[in-house]
Design a protein that fits this description.
With 417 residues, this protein is α/β, with parallel strands linked by helices. Helix content is 47%, strand content 15%. It has 17 helices and 14 strands. The strands form two sheets. Strands 1, 2, 3, 4, 5, 6, 7 and 8 form an eight-stranded parallel β-sheet that branches. The longest helix is centred in the first third of the chain and has 19 residues. The protein is globular, with a radius of gyration of 22 Å.
């Protein structure tokens, strides 16, 4: 069986490789051996990561996508009137899809008003419709979608999603968003596939910690987000390099942990720019560290670690304070107590999978005093929090894997016994 995937960047971020690893695990459980390939705009960077998962990387350019969209529309029109079309295409997007048995999109969040770019929405529509017009089952793996108040986003969703074989969403909120615009028949809810990513082995994590100078406990991971920083800057009108309320809030939390608990703080950037000096999670981490009074007790994890290694470092921490979705998944899936300063609706339901939703704060309303107060409360019951999370992990992983049976049915196969 040949499956082509869209949507995951494998280099310089935690989320994409985590989603790919989880998807491969679901496919292996549901289908057995599968020949997987992944479209990439950054093929040179992604080749090595793809090889680790036995996934072929398919390079393409944006112009290839636009050309494929036009050709696929023509093929779809011809198929409607009964004209047979050859299965071999030179276009680097159309060719692999024509040879595949089915196609899956594994983006983390898509078709949302939170990213209302018209060009982005158009390109998302292309990715969804090209396989459909070629007669291939198209599946969206566990993602968040919506809200749909922006007219163009709502139109794209209503036009594209009913044509898919299956839409797996990772939250009840996303299901409700889709239902609000009349999309319900092909929608199912399952947790994020990244729960299935395995951390690197303990010996490798020990090497990383030693190389980074992380030798003490207690240890706290702090995962800052450029998405939150950007939104706060827009709200407050601050310059990119200037501290803002989000930066000061996390700096205050980090200082408090150093001063009251003697904690070692490690910043773990989840998304890195492709150009040196670009605006990314690392640059936000450096702003926070520069604002700290106890900056000498903080380290910023250097570049180059893969998703399993980053997950392993998160697992070697006593507490995680994060503004990133997949670092939250990485922490919860290892039983690490987690406090979220997040954006969007997706964090509350994610943390709720393990009964931890009370530790979620909205970035726009969070105040340093309440974050410090919550950290103190959590610190007094870290063992109890871990004990509450750990029994939830097998259930969550099983729920992710069970989604594979829906995929089998969607692409025309009988459920496995």
């Amino acid at each position: 069986m040949k499956v082509v995937l869209w949507g995951a960047h494998l280099s310089r971020n935690l989320g994409g490789p985590s989603l790919l690893a989880g998807t491969c695990r679901v496919l292996a459980e549901a289908f057995g051996p599968v020949e997987c390939s992944l479209f990439s705009l950054f093929a040179a960077d992604d080749q090595a990561r793809g090889k680790q998962r036995n996934v072929a990387i398919l390079p393409y350019r944006k112009k290839d996508l636009y050309q494929a969209f036009v050709l696929a529309a023509l093929v779809g029109a011809l198929r409607k009137v009964g004209v047979k079309v050859r299965r071999s295409f030179r276009n680097p997007v159309l060719g692999p899809i024509a040879q595949a048995d089915w196609v899956a999109d594994i983006n983390g969040i898509m078709l949302t008003d939170l990213f209302p770019s018209a060009r982005g929405l158009l390109e998302q529509a292309m990715q969804l419709l090209i396989p459909v017009w070629l007669g291939k089952p198209m599946v969206k793996f566990t993602q968040d979608m919506g809200p749909f108040q922006v007219p163009l986003n709502r139109w794209v969703a209503k036009f594209c999603l009913p044509r898919l074989a299956l839409v797996l969403v990772r939250s009840e909120a996303s299901r409700q968003n889709l239902e609000s615009i009349g999309i319900r028949e092909n929608v199912r809810v399952r947790p994020d596939t990244a729960f299935l990513l395995e951390p690197a082995d303990p010996a490798r994590i020990g090497q990383i910690l030693a190389a980074e100078g992380l030798v003490r406990r207690p240890r706290v991971a702090l995962v800052a987000s450029r998405q939150v920083d950007r939104r706060i800057r827009q709200m407050e009108g601050t310059a990119p390099e200037a501290p803002n309320s989000y930066v000061r809030l996390l700096a205050a939390a980090a200082d408090h942990l150093v001063e009251t608990q003697g904690a070692e703080v490690v910043f773990i950037p989840n998304e890195l720019a492709r150009e040196p000096g670009g605006y990314d999670d690392e640059s936000v981490s450096r702003k926070i560290a520069a604002e700290m009074k106890q900056a000498g007790a903080a380290r910023i994890l250097s570049r180059g670690y893969d998703a399993g290694e980053l997950k392993g470092v998160i697992g070697a921490c006593d507490l995680v304070v994060t503004s990133r979705y997949h670092s939250t998944v990485a922490a919860l899936s290892q039983g690490v107590p987690t406090l979220v300063v997040g954006w969007g609706y997706k964090y509350g339901e994610l943390m709720g999978l393990a009964g931890q939703e009370r530790h979620v704060f909205d970035f726009a309303r969070a105040r340093a005093g309440e974050i410090v107060e919550r950290i103190d409360a959590m610190w007094g019951e870290l063992d109890a929090i871990r004990a509450a999370i750990e029994p939830c992990i097998p259930r969550i992983r099983s729920a992710v894997l069970a989604g594979g049976q829906w995929v089998r049915e969607a692409v025309g196969l009988e459920p496995m016994a």
